[in-house]
Amino acid sequence: MVPLICVPRHKRWEQCQHGDRGDPARPSATKESRLTNPGFGPDLVEVFGPSQQDGGPDLIQLLTPEGERVHHPEFDLDFSAEQLRGFYRDMVLTRRIDTEATALQRHGELGIWAQLLGQEAAQIGAGRALRPQDFVFPTYREHGVAYCKGVDPLNLLGLFRGVDHGAWDPNENNFGLYTIVIGAQALHATGYAMGIQRDGAVGTGDPERDAAVIAHFGDGASSQGDVNEAFIFAASYNAPVVFFCQNNQWAISEPIERQSRIPLYQRALGFGFPGVRVDGNDVLATYAVTQAALQRAREGQGPTFVEAYTYRMGAHTTTDDPTRYRLSDDVESWKLKDPIARVEVYLRRNGLVDDQFIADLKAEADELGHHLREGCKALPDPKPLDMFDHVYAEETDEIRAQREGFAAYLETFDETAGSH
Amino acid sequence: MVPLICVPRHKRWEQCQHGDRGDPARPSATKESRLTNPGFGPDLVEVFGPSQQDGGPDLIQLLTPEGERVHHPEFDLDFSAEQLRGFYRDMVLTRRIDTEATALQRHGELGIWAQLLGQEAAQIGAGRALRPQDFVFPTYREHGVAYCKGVDPLNLLGLFRGVDHGAWDPNENNFGLYTIVIGAQALHATGYAMGIQRDGAVGTGDPERDAAVIAHFGDGASSQGDVNEAFIFAASYNAPVVFFCQNNQWAISEPIERQSRIPLYQRALGFGFPGVRVDGNDVLATYAVTQAALQRAREGQGPTFVEAYTYRMGAHTTTDDPTRYRLSDDVESWKLKDPIARVEVYLRRNGLVDDQFIADLKAEADELGHHLREGCKALPDPKPLDMFDHVYAEETDEIRAQREGFAAYLETFDETAGSH
Amino acid sequence: MSTQKITLAKGLNMGLRKAMEDDPKVLIMGEDVGKLGGVFRITDGLQKDFGEDRVIDSPLAESGIVGTAIGMALRGYRPVVEIQFDGFVYPAYDQIVCQVAKMHYRSKGRYKIPMVIRIPFGGGIGAVEHHSESPEAQFAHTPGLKVVACSNPVDGYWMIQQAIASDDPVIFLEPKRQYHADKAELDESATPEPLFTSRVVRRGTDVTVLAYGPTVKTAMAAAEAASTDGQSIEVIDLRTLSPLDMGPVFESVRRTGRAVITHEAHVNLGMGSEVAARITEECFYSLEAPVLRVGGFDTPYPASRIEEDFLPDLDRVLDAVDRSLEF
Amino acid sequence: MSTQKITLAKGLNMGLRKAMEDDPKVLIMGEDVGKLGGVFRITDGLQKDFGEDRVIDSPLAESGIVGTAIGMALRGYRPVVEIQFDGFVYPAYDQIVCQVAKMHYRSKGRYKIPMVIRIPFGGGIGAVEHHSESPEAQFAHTPGLKVVACSNPVDGYWMIQQAIASDDPVIFLEPKRQYHADKAELDESATPEPLFTSRVVRRGTDVTVLAYGPTVKTAMAAAEAASTDGQSIEVIDLRTLSPLDMGPVFESVRRTGRAVITHEAHVNLGMGSEVAARITEECFYSLEAPVLRVGGFDTPYPASRIEEDFLPDLDRVLDAVDRSLEF
Ligand SMILES: Cc1ncc(C[n+]2csc(CCOP(=O)(O)OP(=O)(O)O)c2C)c(N)n1
Ligand SMILES: Cc1ncc(C[n+]2csc(CCOP(=O)(O)OP(=O)(O)O)c2C)c(N)n1
Ligand SMILES: [Mg+2]
Ligand SMILES: [Mg+2]
């Protein structure tokens, strides 16, 4: 299998070295040391092995970076031309959402933007595997999943523009609000899944009824207590939840090695449910694995951990400067694994798309871009007094009094001041 | 190998059933279901297998419940008669500390007591494996480890009597104060171990210098975010810490199945360091495994998770009533695995102790009991004004003023009132 | 319906049972709430009668308990979470202040979190560290949360049902010291006052003493003792800490001109500071003396052998009353 | 030594560097503090110069950061922990209030926790949710912690060194809005005032305005504006929130008879309630008006487009000053 990272092992590894004696682990955790300290559990070699450095032997892939369709003994699927063109379209439009939003931030229309560049396949593969009744708990970067769930991308811009904390109705599309406190949503997803169990909407065999939950989070989030507690609750109650981790190799400036010294998907095994690593730049593999995991959940077989192995091609957010902490050739090597290019190569090579299709899609993307540009600038600013709304479902006299007091205060300014 | 629990699987299992459809995991996670949902990681059978129900195939044992010395390919050690008698003496005295304290609570001399009955081997095995420079972070139940570290057991009674929050000097014996917030100490232990790394006291090869830390916690604590974050930090920095979990099967009324559906020691594998399950009622095996784990840490090979598989024979604390939630025959079956009895049988069968030794030890235990009874009643009550001491290293005017104000207030009562 | 004499523990247990009977969406979750019925037995018998799906024994992780309860609330359930002791709510503090408190606001009302977080609070039970804390101010300072404290068996019965019926998250504080103490007469056919109201529990003319939870009993005892010295003390049970129901307080202080507030929490930044500030803002010209505060000292909770010195008691309340009157 | 003009970010960076040079036991730990130098660049260059053992990039877990820092402190180190944003301190709240705050007390002084927890706090930077919080009251209410807030570059330089030198745990609040704003003249050869002292930063006679952190600038601007209307405002930078240094405040209020306190934190149970209560207790007969509080409203922090309406500003401070004078 083609290793997913070409940068030599030591480069990334340096980033989590320590000068301490007895550090790092790897040198001492050789076969030899197993002999000197026998018996400490299975898999030491695998545990400390080099599999961290590429996708590893367990990486599930159906479409190579070169656009070559490969097969997998367990997760293979037959994809129709329609499906493949759909994935391609989804990814192209998702990337367009991202580039437009990034541009809008550069032009001062957004305060900040969390780019997904390079993670289109992971998000579309996961998003398209969902059924309408499945519920999504995203981070702040799941723009592609939101798109799959039918959320108008324009609604995603509000919180980055600072006009709201989330403009879409979570229950309309079964797509929850973005969560900024890292990892918190993993527990919400698990609890929601426990609710599904109590509704008897698991394992009935009715495809319209059986539901699952997917919790999105990043590699960095895997270190939060909340995420690990979510694993414990999900395993303990066998909740129908899929933990979908986009391992984009970075948590702002912290490399994945700071969070885990073994392949992240193996974390799940310690909690008693399956974990699997899929090529997150391969939309086919991500789709196949995620829908199998969701199906396991719907059937009542409990939680699954899916590690989508990918790379954050852009900055953490538009305010971040990655040149301070990572190597550009690392990024260059990942360019060769682009999730969209490989599908386009495959489609063209197999004559599944023609120039017309590409041209129409480009036009559609331009449309979308226009929609976002114009729509964003037209997003209404909140009014000062709006800040007092929705603090409670049953508003208190205290809030009412503060609103009235502030309204009266604003009155004391000339008319324009009232709406600042 | 002799299974450690005789009670049939279904009894314990019932305790964590849920009526939900799709619950519980095990039925669906059979080989057959692996075939229907292939590829979700290795070890499904092991993961969902029945090993939870007895010590399991991986249980490390050197002395059977029947007092028969068995051998282990990796963790065997030669124990001198001196050592064996020492373990026996340690456990007998530790049990005496526990029974005396329990009696003192019954007589109203202690507010509460956390009994260790049944966990003597786990604590002595772990405690005796320590070197003077190793540091211990206990829970509230490590009376046997405290004893090994040279803490006067009388000092342990203070916080249960309510005269202090911990009377011993942690730095005198390298034995930290009891921690009541479940799991918090696992992080302190990891940080302390990171300090040892920074002191260059790891992997020097100097047996007087190289140090390790041991963090004690229970099976219930394994669910706390803090404990899992400790695993992450310890793995990330390869800290010289041993996570020593006494799995006594219960967290007050919650059975181990509520916390983990696979053998707890396997949790470590998901974090990238070894885990091992040892018979916690076998002092020889616990000693052998713990000292090997500590040595790994001192040599700079990083963290190890040791699950001491044992049973809480008494109530959670003297205020608990286990009859509300567990089966007495469960307890009965564990009586057959008593950690002290098996060593006595072995010592006598091999003529390593005589009646004189037993008699002397009994006398020594009576001495200890007397020391605790008299000492406990003589423990001085704190004075009201003591509550203002040690709030800060550099006392504030605010605290000083509150002390003086309260002192003046107390003055207004008749003399006796001052000291209530 | 005939009345019966019940303890606070019994009132809460009956109230929880009633709420579960009335609404199948009500769930209970926490450590040891099932077979054991909770370490204080407040959920005694509920799992037996409502099953393990509705009375859920949880793993040992408070953030996990509250975090998953949020998810269940989003799915349409009404979780009642039990925190075993006040000192163990902190691992869940992030989920409570960043998620429970903010989800309704964040979503413009589309997410509702009808959750109750029950916390046995306060001291006086001779316990070890972390079992006698009074964390109310740390929640009352957080917009989006509502915070109430019951002080007697009858309020326990009604207030827990009202809290569960509320569409807002409610931090529900129970004075553990009184769980199995005094009994009171409960008439289940009565109609309770609204949840978010304070109540004058004793009429008086000289000084207004404000209390909630465990200190209501202290305040009543102080008022009784003072009456023998000819001092007439009005006692108000605040009951709700966020929102505060200051109306009856202002009315009272305008009459008495003097106020003392007492709670077990540390005085520094405790509820007393907010109540004092509001009284001073509203009743400035009626005040004969500054509002005085009697609470736990600004030290960590001490060893239990001296906890009664740390906690406000009748004498310290009366001492403050005297100081107020001497002003 | 010659002076130089520096920003708050620079002052803090220089102070941290000085502390690390002076004491090899000083460590820095947090998310992105190493190569990146922190998202605000406060630790810029320190890992390069002091190595990865002393400037420690951590996994993404705040409880883990503070919890392991406790362990390093017990081993004799002096950890300086960076919390990336105010809103992300809550996962560590349990370790801070139950462990950091109580270990010295629990151990009768045998455990020392000379830890500094740096928190960029406050709003005004147009950020998304959880990036503009003011959690100071939640720490100041906890005995065993000391809490300070710097308001300018020079204080930043000195106070961070003093906090690190303190044998008690210090919550160190940094007004992130001012990190890269105004510059000030630093003379490294000067001797700073003690850490736990408040400071009169502008003399006045009519009203005393109390502020800390980001609102000191607001208060000074208000005083300047008021002076043109002939109002003489005295401004005090509280600097230390726990302990409070009330001496200069009482002295001032006894002269002016009027006090206004302003902070970004919610008014309800914010620092203002405690300060108001103490002033009223101590200066009752000197007060011409109740102490007025100008702070963030009692709503969650709103969308950034209206944050300036949420935050106290010059106009709202002067409005309170006028109301105080009209009393
Ligand atoms: C509890 C918490 N701590 C810190 C932060 C600041 N922060 C925002 S994103 C981020 C990195 C997240 O990395 P990862 O989980 O890998 O997700 P990614 O951004 O790579 O998609 C951090 C530290 C936060 N939002 N929440
Ligand atoms: C954070 C926290 N939550 C709850 C408790 C109450 N509590 C004390 S001991 C205990 C059970 C602990 O079980 P385990 O970790 O298995 O240790 P064991 O008591 O069996 O030795 C609980 C829930 C606590 N002390 N701390
Ligand atoms: Mg990442
Ligand atoms: Mg246990």
From TrEMBL, chains C, D:
<dbReference type="InterPro" id="IPR009014">
    <property type="entry name" value="Transketo_C/PFOR_II"/>
</dbReference>
<dbReference type="Pfam" id="PF02780">
    <property type="entry name" value="Transketolase_C"/>
</dbReference>
<dbReference type="InterPro" id="IPR005475">
    <property type="entry name" value="Transketolase-like_Pyr-bd"/>
</dbReference>
<keyword id="KW-0560">Oxidoreductase</keyword>
<keyword id="KW-0786">Thiamine pyrophosphate</keyword>
<dbReference type="InterPro" id="IPR029061">
    <property type="entry name" value="THDP-binding"/>
</dbReference>
<dbReference type="GO" id="GO:0016491">
    <property type="term" value="F:oxidoreductase activity"/>
</dbReference>
<feature type="domain" description="Transketolase-like pyrimidine-binding">
    <location>
        <begin position="6"/>
        <end position="181"/>
    </location>
</feature>
<protein>
    <submittedName>
        <fullName>Alpha-ketoacid dehydrogenase subunit beta</fullName>
        <ecNumber>1.2.4.-</ecNumber>
    </submittedName>
</protein>
<dbReference type="InterPro" id="IPR033248">
    <property type="entry name" value="Transketolase_C"/>
</dbReference>
<dbReference type="Pfam" id="PF02779">
    <property type="entry name" value="Transket_pyr"/>
</dbReference>
